[in-house]
Amino acid sequence: MIQSIDYVAIGAPLALASAAGLVLLLDVFLPRRTPGALGLVALAGVLVAGGLVAAQAAGGGERRTFCVPASGAGPGDGCSFVVDGFTLVLSGLVLGAGVVVVLLSMTELAERRIPPGEWYFLLLCALTGAVLLPAARDLATLVVALELVSLPVFALTALKRYDGRASEAALKLFLVSVVSTAVMLFGVSLLYGLTGTLHLDRLSAALSAVPGASGVVAVAVVLVLAGFAFKVAAVPFHFWAGDVYQGAPVPVAALLSVVSKAAGFAGLILILTTGLREQAALWGPVIAVVSALTMTAGNVLALRQRAALRLLAWSSVAQSGYILAPLAVVGGNAFAASVAYLVIYAAMNLGAFAVVMPVSRTAARNELDDYRGLASRRPVAAVALAFFLVCLAGLPPGLAGLFAKVVVFRQIVEGGLGWLAVVMAVNTVIGLYYYISWTARLFAPAPSGPGRVPAAPMPVSASVAVGLAVLVTLAFSVAPQLVLSASG
Amino acid sequence: MSWIPIAMLAVPLLGAAALLLPRFAGGPSHRYGLAVSGVTLALAVVLVAAFDYGDAARTQFATDLPWIPGLALRFHLGVDGVSLPLVVLTALLTFLCFVHLAGRPPHRPRALVFTLLVLETGIIGTFLALDLLLFFVFFEVVLVPMYFVIAIWGGPGRRAAAVKFILYTLLGSAVLLLGLLVVWAQAGTLDMVALARGGGAGIARSAQIAAFLAIGVGLAVKAPMWPLHTWLPDAHTEAPTVGSVLLAGVLLKMGTYGFARIAIPILPEGAAAVAPWLGALAVVGIVYGSLACLAQRDLKRMIAYSSVGHMGFVLLGFATLTPVGVNAALFGNVAHGLITGLLFFLAGAVKDRYGTADMERLGGGMLRRLPYIGSLLTFACVASLGLPGLAGFWGEMLALFGAFRPAAALSRPLFLVFMAIGGLGTVLTAAYFLRMLSRVTHGSPAVPEGPPVTSAEEIREILGDEGPVEPVAAGTAVTAAVAEESAAVLAPPAEPVGGRAALRDVTAYELAAWVPLVVLTLLFGLWPKSLLAITTPAVQAILSGVGS
């Protein structure tokens, strides 16, 4: 049987994959290895993919391809690749984040200690996987896309070969990720064995038709959840975050905290709300407990951190907990709140990374105390970072973060999970402590003494990245409806 | 759509935003702040002039625009008899703070002006908002600026005090948000006007109680109500003068205003169920605040604790659920804002001159050394302890009167006990203020040579922010700075007794900042109807759901 392929639907991942190949070729054939040129090619690839996604969004409607027509296998049209509103929002998020990560990479690679061709190739591969994933509608595509996001990231982390911490981080990430993939594949194989279908839309009905296998279903569900819990750094699979964020190059940490996390959540939302819809009574309470534990563990661990990147690592674990919370509300459109939070979180978290990036180049250890007096050295960067941190804390003037939290709170309260709302309220307060103490450092008087070099000018690419993140976060603050209507 | 409320928010906000422009770097920011807050005050005066007093219960100058349809959040502003006095009070106190700053330019003036203007936007917005979530957003706006006011311009223990303030109040507002969301989930709208008109219709009694508890706890942290007040003494003591004035003068009112605007009218059944507890905690707060005041050595800390007691009277007024009681609460709100604002200004002035606010070290005889400041301090204390004829009296008296005859749904004997304890509280309030006056203003001055300066922060406050301060030379430097500026003294300094160093008495700027508060305290004290006439119709509307 010959399948017809809708090339418009798969345009964005195709563009990214082509750009990845092109970068690799150019790296070989360009006479001088100019990291800037390759960066621009990668940037162009991401922008083209973004343009395609935007065009699809403007065109409206839903596109499906790679379909296996129904042959008595159950309801649903059995398409493996679907471009709908959910796909477009998450692809847009990934590509937007991709632009910022590429810009940060330009700053990172300007030192010329990391091979640019390999770097951009791997980066674009990871982005391809992340764009593919929200469109995936069968378990095999989902797993393959998720691995396409994960595998290049190990290599990216390890590319900082001259740094022992990077190798350690890469190994840690590799082991954790491989184990999680194995666990998830086991769960997926159980699901497939029980139902005989991989398509998410057929899975749900098929699972409820399986008689007397609730024990196996429960095991399968828990294993799949555990696999995703690794990807989004949820408790009890969160411990890798601190070391990996600290050891990896800053752009990779940004990639991990936003792109990789968005991919993980996209897969989780797809499996839970489509494939395992009927089993909600099973996974709902599990997600609620995991969410509460994740936000608490992340916030408590972040309290004691002195290094900026470790703090961001644990804070992003805590934020994962907030994103998980609405998923625990069974039924309705609760996952829209998660998507909205994810989009806003991506903007503000990337912004924080974009400011941390140039500071990490002047202060090797990148500790919180290195930010003391940043307001007098680099007022614009300091105000931007303060804005992002206050956003992450969820307080005005960071209205984007505030509204994101309100959306999540509303979903939990309406869903009747009062205890989770209270846990999250307490966590918001814990989180504020470390965000505000970092913000206060920015405006504290600079420490005097020898060894204080005047600030080097901000690299252009990093400035553009910061500016972009500020603009997007400001837009989300003034008009959060942009996100809410897209994700709803 | 009416332009005045929008302009009252836009002027300070845009004024703050303009300060970010590079051309303001190092400019005379305090004069700029004076101008911006002056315009805001002028708008408030226009509001007062254009307000229709015949229909004070109705929402006037309403603006209702959609903002975030996905959250059903509307940009809904308006003024009625409950919010008008507080809006004007906020504009006035902020303006007076800038007058005060014009006389004593702080270090990092641009940043301070910026923060104060954002703070003003948040407070005015809270009083104007008529949408539950919009109210919450403005409620939160004040947190970060106030944190920085305390953390950057505060006293020696500022960092801990600022962190305590923001964490405590954020915990309160997170709980408040949950309560608001319960209301929303039950009633299906965020429109405060519609919700208040409905009077709790469509919200089950159990949900009303849960929501009232959550909202009440959130507001009680801000108000503050005993035992949730522990952030307040530290924050008030460590904050700079303008911070203390705004904290005590208007920030606390956001909590009590929430009771009048949200908790009681929207959740009447919840209010009726929780009111005895609210009343009990309020009277405990009154007595506890007074006793704590008796134990204080620090002038600012004593005034801070006196706020706990005064806000106890306000909360007791709300707890009675009667028109008299709620009127008392709203009156007490404004009176406390005026009087405590004045007290903190004076405490700041005393601290500037003596270099300490410790009552032991102030010695006595302020009326001889600084006759103007001493007599103003006496006036403010007497007003605060509730002398008939001054503004402080009516709030307390009416609150006790309301407790004498509480709403029908409440137990009268219980509230009679509250009244008796509250009455005891007024006596204790008088006791600590009079004790303080006798120790500080009366007697003969017994102050060591030169202002005893205790810390580098205090010296910096006097000398400005130039270079490191050496503790050894500090005393002389401060004396020199004080002597240098004595040309600007309005009134002749008190005759130095026994060759002691002369301190300058009140300056023109200080007088300009304080006189309006004195005048209004007298006005509302002698003619309480001027304020009660505005609030009474609105109060009847608030209580329409309680069925008293």
Structural features:
heterodimer; A: 488 residues; mainly alpha; two-stranded antiparallel sheet; globular; B: 548 residues; 23 helices; 71% helix; 3% strand
Explain what the structure shows.
The complex is a heterodimer of chains A (488) and B (548). Chain A has 19 helices and 2 strands. Chain A has 488 residues and is mainly alpha-helical. In chain A, 61% of the residues are buried. Chain B has one domain (3-443, 509-545). In chain B, strand 1 and strand 2 (73-79) form a beta hairpin. Mean pLDDT of chain B is 84; it is low at 466-499. The chains are: A mainly alpha (488), B mainly alpha (548). Chains A and B meet through helix 16, helix 17 and helix 19 of A and helix 4, helix 5, helix 6 and helix 7 of B.
Low-confidence sequence ranges of chain B: 466-499
Q: Name the pair of protein chains with the most residues at their interface, and give those residue counts.
A: A-B, 34 and 35 residues
Succession of helices and strands of chain B: HHEEHHHHHHHHHHHHHHHHHHHHH
Q: Given the helix and strand composition of chain A, which structural class is it? A: mainly alpha
Strand content of chain A: under 5%
Helical region count of chain A? 19
Oligomer: heterodimer
Low-confidence stretches of chain A: none
Q: What is the number of helical segments of chain B per DSSP (H or I, 4+ residues)?
A: 23
Please summarize what this structure is.
The complex is a heterodimer of chains A (488) and B (548). Chain A has helices at residues 11-29, 35-59, 85-109, 116-132, 139-158, 164-195, 200-209, 214-231, 240-247, 250-275, 280-303, 308-324, 335-362, 374-377, 379-393, 399-414, 418-443, 460-478, 481-487, and strands at residues 63-67, 79-83. By secondary structure, chain A is mostly helical.
